[in-house]
Design brief:
Elements (H helix, E strand, L loop, with lengths): L8 E7 L2 H17 L4 E7 L2 H4 L12 H12 L4 E5 L13 E6 L7 E4 L17 E3 L3 H10 L4 E3 L5 H9 L10 E5 H6 L6 E4 L14 E6 L3 H8 L4 H17 L7 E7 L5 E8 L6 E7 L6 H14 L2 H6 L4
Parallel strand pairs: 1-2, 1-3, 6-7, 6-8
Antiparallel strand pairs: 3-10, 4-10, 5-8, 5-9, 11-12, 12-13
Helix pairs in contact: 8-9
The structure holds the ligand NCc1[nH]cc(CCC(=O)O)c1CC(=O)O.
The ligand NCc1[nH]cc(CCC(=O)O)c1CC(=O)O binds next to β8 and α6.
Length: 323
């Protein structure tokens, strides 16, 4: 292990949303612990996608959050970036010259149901017929509609805190929803875990590929940074997300595809991967559940899951959805 050059400041590019800032601050802390004395600087960026309040598909899809920061890492104005792996598109390769030098140990992957402040409801079952649930993830929409076709799923955008404010109806203009679905790990990172009521098991609401995983990205040819970040890598999480993302990549999903995928490591050290592709209203879906073989490359497991989903008609489902 070589020491990070003492005269170099490590600049971390991050979105300026509170969740992204919390994540980057946490990573800065880990780096300082790993390399005492290191100078770390956060470079917050308000991306085009953060400023745009309309439909993301109109401005280049959700990959826009990461694209702008990737360009800064590529261009050298920052040395690294912290991305939610969930927000990193699975259908296009990482930009030229960039690598994920590490992923951190996976946080909670589950989604939770949040109710407006003061509500005494606790679960999805408590919601009256026709209630409005806020989410913009097609994956969540499909799975909610599958169990509760009566619910009106309403789109919501913006940072996690903003979504909760909208739910609480803090402003006159807010569209009232009766509940919202958010990631447990996002709430946790914002110190808002107490707002979560029903925590959906992964069987009730299969997570997004990469859920709960923070990816540390840098330039491939930047030896000192790649080496330092590599020391923070969590092998098991890396294997799991590699399998999930290989599955997603093979599906050629677009950002409007209701794809879910979750890989976990068993007691025996073997991976098990579950993938699902839904029609937008959740009324139909295809599903693969596979166990890794001893010694199998995680990407090969992902490819097998993908092949199984395609065999069942995943491509037809994905193609039928406007994007
Ligand atoms: N789409 C925004 C986003 N990207 C990552 C997370 C949560 C953290 C994670 O799953 O890594 C969230 C918030 C949410 O979905 O509620």
């Amino acid at each position: 292990m070589s020491d990070f050059p003492a005269d170099r400041t490590l600049r971390i590019g991050t979105r300026s949303s509170p969740m992204a800032m919390a994540q980057a601050t946490m990573v800065a802390g880990l780096l300082r612990k790993e390399q005492p004395g290191i100078r770390v600087e956060l470079v917050p960026v308000t991306t085009q996608a953060d400023r745009w309040h309309g439909d993301l598909a109109q401005v280049g899809g959700k990959g826009l959050f990461v694209k702008q920061i990737d360009a800064m890492v590529q261009g050298g104005s920052v040395d690294m970036a912290v991305h939610c792996m969930k927000d990193v598109p699975g259908d296009i390769p990482l930009p030229q010259g960039l690598v994920f030098a590490a992923v951190l140990a996976r946080d909670d992957v589950r989604d939770v149901l949040v109710f407006p402040q003061g509500s005494d409801l606790q679960t999805l079952d408590d919601l009256p017929v026709g209630a409005a649930v806020a989410t913009s993830a097609v994956r969540r929409r499909a799975q909610l509609q599958r169990v509760r076709p009566d619910l009106a799923v309403v789109r919501v955008r913006g940072a996690v805190g903003t979504r909760i404010d909208k739910l609480d109806g803090t402003r006159e203009s807010d569209t009232a929803a009766d509940a919202a679905v958010l990631a447990a790990s996002g709430l946790e990172r914002l110190g808002l875990s107490h707002r979560g009521r029903q925590v959906f098991s992964v069987d009730e609401l299969l997570p997004a590929v990469g859920a709960g995983v923070l990816a540390l990205e840098c330039r491939e040819d930047d030896g000192p940074v790649a080496e330092l970040l590599g020391r923070l890598n969590h092998e098991r999480t890396m294997a799991e997300v590699t399998a999930e993302r290989a599955m997603l990549e093979g599906l050629r999903g677009h950002c409007n595809s209701p794809v879910a995928g979750y890989c976990a490591t068993g007691q025996d050290g073997l991976l098990s991967l579950r993938g699902m592709v839904f029609t937008p209203d959740g009324s139909a879906f295809v599903e693969a559940r596979l166990r890794g073989e001893p010694g199998e490359d995680p990407a090969a497991l992902g490819a097998r899951a993908c092949a199984e989903l395609l065999r069942q008609g995943a491509a037809e489902i994905i193609e039928a959805i406007p994007h």
